[in-house]
Structure formats: C-alpha cells, structure tokens
C-alpha cells in the first residue's frame, strides 16, 4: 500500500488492560478489512494487477516486468515444442529448418525484484471464455499471435480447436471455451498499399494516415486488443495519400518522418476513443521489436549480423542503432493521452528486454519464399533474417507478460 501506517497508541496506554487489548484488536481488524477491500476494488489498482507486482509490493520493492536479465533455464523451458505445434509458421520454425543449437529456446526473462508468472494456458482460456482476443499489426505481431496459439493449443483436444484464414484475418478457435484468438494483418494500422497479407512488397510505400475504418471493422467489439506497428515506418520519408487509391483527385506527398507515424497513431487513437467499449475492452500496444543487423552495435565485427549468434548480449545498457527512440516517444504520448481520457490501454514495453537477444532470430533457419541465388548461398549473412524471432523463443516472453496483465 505504499506507506507503512504508524500506529499511535500512546493515548491508549492508560486504558485498563482488557479494554486496551480490545481497542487494539478492533483497530487491527479494521485495518485488515480495509486492506482486503482496497485490493478487491479493481478501480483502485494500478495496471497490471499481476501476482508478480503484488509480491514485490509486499516486500516494499517495485516490480517492473520490463527490467531485468535473461537467465539460462534448461529445466522449465521451452514452454511448448515447436515441432509439436500444428500452427507453427515456417517463417519462425528455426528448428524445423535446420537450427541445431536450441539454446535460444531456454533463456528465461527474470524481472528485477520479482518473478514473471509462468504461463498458464488453462487460466488464459478460462479468462477468454466467450471472448475474443485480437492481435493487429505487422509480421512481428503475427509472430506473437503464433506464439500465443502454440502456448494454448497444447492443452486443447484436437477435435476442440480450429483454425480459419479469411484474407487478412486468421482465427484460432477454442470450441469448448467459445474463445477466439485472432490475428489481423495491418502493418501500418491505417490503410496502405501494403495491406494485402501475401503480396505486400512495394518499391514505394504509400499510407492513408487518416483512414482506418476498413481495417477497424475486423476488430470492433473485441474483448482484448494487442496492437503493434514500427518496422514498416523506418526511413527518412513516407508517401502520404489524401484521398482514395486510384482516385484521380488523390494527392500524394513525401512527408518527413516521424510526422506520418504520429498522424497514423493519432488516427488510430481517435478510432479507439470513439468506438472502444470502455467497460469491457482491454487494449495493449507492443513497443518496437529490435533488429540485430549491425554486429558493431554490440562490439562484433563490422559487416556481420545475427548470423551464427548463440548467446544474448550481456551489456545491460545495450541499445541497437535501429531502435528509434523518437518513434517510441510518440507511442508513449499517444497512449498517455488515451489513458487520461479513461481508456484501459497499456504499453507492453518489450524493447529493452528484446534488445539483448541477438541470438533469437531465425537468421538463415526459416523457409525462404524465393530460391536463393548462388551468391546468397555463398554468403549466408546476406540473407539472414535478424528481424523476426524463432519460436519457441522471445515472443513467448512477450505473451508471458501479456498473460500477467490479463489473468
């Protein structure tokens, strides 16, 4: 409760023994009841109401789930078998595609002053009974969705779970719980020329920073929303479209970053403010997921990247050159404004803990969508994927943190 109560009992010292004893008992009983009621009142609890935070608070310490270190854990990890998950993405299935060093699966995030609660699949499913959880964003968020599906599907009988894909929307359904865990492809959150879930590569990225309704219809009335959008915004400029794609009256202008990102997030925030059911919907925004394309950032050889890396970075203050702080500050401001307006929204600040994990990317151990050239085969560094994450792996920790919020 923050401050220790100072019991001033000097005025009671003169009361006869029995009465003195009764007064103290009544006082202590009142404090206990008040404390219990305080904890039962969700409106007075800070977010998240996690068991880890509560345990740390009881010790008079502050629990920050996003500060800590990675600890090798060969006993309790991984939380599921990658080859055993029928919904695993070939983009993230590193073991399937030849990675033999599996130590990346066995690093456990240890927050400072508290423990991250172990993921409880049954508790998550019960919490999602008759509800819908939707991940919205780019391929990093899709990876987190795959992680969540693999975490929960292992406790569900085969005939009681389904997966359906309809364009940009993928839906995993736990039939017995009437629960849906979905993913919707919207890499910029607002509309863009990269909205096709398969064919989204374009030499020139164009965004409609004021248009989000077409996407939003797919996540309206959700109970839990998890958003992200970062990597697709990197660059000095962004082409911004006012009007409709294909319209002769449309105006396209090159706008210096980060203004387009801020405009898009404000459009997203305005939609949430107007349409979210504040009584039921929990909303989260996942901070930027770092890349590891520059080995010189962590003291490695210039020109190298995450290829062949097998251990996390130990420098607690490490921060990669591709993690743009100004974009993170925009997210923080937008979320702070929404919170001030009464929305239940939290920032899952997974950036720093993920910065350390140069070992956790697919590198060359993933499905390649196009045949590799002779030059690429001779130089694996040239096609190493140092942006996405192997599963099981780092995104499981992101979901463990999310789990501590929603349980």
Automatic annotation (TrEMBL):
Domain named Trichome birefringence-like N-terminal: residues: 61-115
Subcellular location(s) of the protein: Membrane
Molecular functions (GO terms): O-acetyltransferase activity
Keyword field: Membrane, Signal-anchor, Transmembrane, Transmembrane helix
Membrane-crossing segments per the record: 18-38
Membrane topology qualifier: Single-pass membrane protein
Keyword hit for Transmembrane helix: yes
Alphabetized InterPro entries for the sequence: TBL, TBL_C, TBL_N
GO cellular component, one term: membrane
Domain Trichome birefringence-like C-terminal: 116-404
Family named by the database record: Belongs to the PC-esterase family. TBL subfamily.
UniProt name for this protein: Trichome birefringence-like N-terminal domain-containing protein
């Amino acid at each position: 409760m923050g401050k220790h109560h100072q019991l001033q009992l000097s005025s009671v010292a003169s009361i006869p023994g029995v009465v003195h004893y009764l007064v103290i008992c009544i006082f202590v009983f009142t404090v206990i009841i008040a404390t219990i009621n305080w904890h039962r009142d969700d409106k007075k609890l800070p977010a998240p109401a996690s068991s880890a935070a509560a345990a740390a608070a009881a010790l008079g310490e502050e629990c920050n789930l996003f500060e800590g270190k990675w600890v090798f854990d060969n006993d309790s990890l991984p939380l599921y078998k990658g080859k055993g998950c029928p919904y695993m993405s070939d983009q993230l299935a590193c073991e399937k595609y030849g990675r033999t060093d599996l130590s990346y699966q066995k690093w456990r995030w240890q927050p400072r002053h508290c423990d991250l609660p172990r993921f409880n699949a049954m508790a998550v499913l019960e919490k999602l009974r008759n509800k819908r959880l939707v991940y919205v964003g780019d391929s990093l968020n899709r990876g987190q969705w795959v992680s969540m599906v693999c975490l929960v599907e292992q406790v569900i009988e085969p005939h009681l779970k389904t997966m359906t894909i309809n364009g940009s929307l993928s839906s995993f359904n736990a039939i017995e719980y009437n629960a849906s865990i979905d993913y919707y492809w919207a890499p910029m959150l607002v509309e863009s020329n990269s909205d096709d879930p398969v064919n989204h590569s374009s030499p020139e990225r164009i965004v409609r920073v004021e248009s989000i309704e077409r996407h939003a219809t797919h996540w309206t009335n959700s109970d839990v929303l998890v958003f992200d959008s970062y990597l697709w915004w990197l660059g000095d400029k962004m082409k911004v479209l006012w009007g409709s794609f294909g319209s002769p009256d449309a105006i396209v202008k090159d706008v210096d970053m980060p203004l387009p990102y801020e405009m898009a997030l404000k459009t997203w925030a305005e939609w949430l403010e107007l349409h979210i059911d504040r009584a039921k919907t929990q909303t989260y925004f996942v901070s930027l997921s770092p890349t590891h394309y520059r080995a010189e950032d962590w003291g490695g050889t210039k020109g190298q990247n995450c290829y062949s890396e097998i251990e996390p970075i130990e420098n607690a203050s490490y921060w990669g050159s591709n993690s743009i702080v100004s974009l993170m500050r925009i997210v923080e401001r937008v979320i702070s404004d929404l919170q001030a307006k009464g929305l239940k929204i939290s920032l899952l600040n997974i950036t720093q803990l993920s910065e350390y994990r140069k070992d956790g990317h697919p590198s060359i151990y993933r499905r390649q969508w196009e045949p590799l050239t002779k030059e690429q085969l001779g130089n694996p560094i040239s096609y190493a994927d140092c942006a996405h994450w192997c599963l099981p792996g780092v995104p499981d920790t992101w979901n463990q943190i999310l789990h501590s919020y929603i349980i």
